[in-house]
């Protein structure tokens, strides 16, 4: 009974996290008018770091350099690289496209987990699902570049993001096994993420001016990303990974396209073409096929 309640809590945490993350593409797209991708990233996680510091100020002390390296790698992959690539992708492609493409993260997570966590074995059904999802992504990318004059580089960048996220998910699974405080662990990951961001900020000629923050929309969206999508959601997601495992939790990313496509049409008035809908359908269908097999493997 206790394990069942724990699993239910893990599923609930993952679902709430994805509901919020599914709309972050919208906030980022709005902020890109006045902010560079790395600036959004820096302010977002700086806010998140200080919120987590207020919630849990005790330092996380690792026993070995190998343990410390796990946190460093998680910060580099899950904060700096993933969001920098994702934000850069939104400069060239639609928020709805990015939301669909990022949803293939569970495939990459399953592949890495197969080799590093031994949670599942890859099957023919899994590869079939991946092929369908990849076909959907190609349709979205090609149609967007032809009809909407988008740069296909944006969709390619969006495709790289989930591969980096998969590495982060596996690292966080290993970190959760160290039994550190979840908020403290997340804050430590944020710290290294911010640290790895500094060279990019210096190369970008970071603008510390406050004039952009006088715009209520900019301030509201940065707070939404910093407080909700970063401070809250990284804690809830990392906790869910600790309870359910990297692969089971990543399955919730399949919901992202539905949330993002709907929000993009309603809030950004993005053009939703037949190819976007067809590509989203194929991506979700492929994800569902693989997810069923993953669940069966877990139950066995």
UniProtKB/TrEMBL annotation:
Topological type in the membrane: Multi-pass membrane protein
Keywords: Cell membrane, Membrane, Transmembrane, Transmembrane helix
Stretches that traverse the bilayer: 12-32, 38-57, 69-85, 91-117, 124-142, 148-168, 189-207, 219-237, 249-266, 272-290
InterPro entries with a match to the protein in the record: AA-Vitamin_Transporters (IPR050638), EamA_dom (IPR000620), EmrE-like (IPR037185)
Localization terms from the record: Cell membrane
Top-level taxon: Bacteria
Residue ranges annotated for the EamA domain, each copy included: 9-141, 154-289
PANTHER family (alphabetical): INNER MEMBRANE TRANSPORTER, S-ADENOSYLMETHIONINE_S-ADENOSYLHOMOCYSTEINE TRANSPORTER
Stated family: Belongs to the EamA transporter family.
Record's protein name: Drug/metabolite transporter (DMT)-like permease
Originating species: Paenibacillus forsythiae
């Amino acid at each position: 009974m206790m394990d069942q309640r724990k699993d239910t809590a893990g599923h609930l945490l993952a679902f709430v996290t994805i509901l919020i993350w599914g709309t972050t593409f919208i906030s980022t797209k709005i902020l890109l008018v006045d902010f560079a991708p790395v600036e959004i990233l820096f302010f977002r996680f700086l806010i998140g770091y200080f919120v987590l510091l207020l919630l849990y100020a005790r330092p996380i002390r690792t026993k070995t350099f190998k343990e410390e390296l796990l946190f460093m790698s998680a910060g580099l992959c899950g904060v700096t690289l993933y969001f920098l690539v994702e934000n850069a992708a939104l400069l060239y492609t639609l928020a709805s496209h990015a939301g669909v493409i990022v949803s293939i993260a569970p495939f990459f997570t399953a592949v890495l987990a197969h080799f590093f966590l031994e949670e599942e074995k890859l099957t023919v059904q899994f590869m079939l699902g991946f092929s369908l999802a990849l076909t959907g992504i190609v349709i979205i990318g090609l149609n967007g570049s032809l009809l909407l004059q988008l740069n296909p580089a944006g969709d390619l960048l969006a495709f790289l993001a989930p591969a980096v996220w998969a590495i982060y998910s596996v690292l966080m699974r290993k970190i959760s096994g160290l039994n550190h405080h979840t908020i403290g662990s997340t804050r430590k990951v944020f710290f290294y993420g911010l640290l790895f961001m500094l060279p990019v900020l210096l190369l970008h000629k970071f603008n510390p001016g406050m004039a952009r923050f006088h715009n209520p929309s900019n301030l509201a969206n940065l707070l939404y990303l910093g407080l909700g999508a970063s401070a809250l959601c990284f804690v809830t997601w990392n906790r869910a990974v600790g309870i359910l495992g990297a692969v089971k939790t990543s399955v919730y990313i399949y919901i992202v396209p539905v949330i993002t496509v709907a929000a993009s049409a309603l809030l950004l008035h993005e053009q939703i073409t037949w190819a976007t809908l067809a590509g989203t359908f194929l991506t979700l269908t492929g994800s569902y096929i693989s997810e069923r097999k993953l669940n069966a493997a877990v139950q066995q």
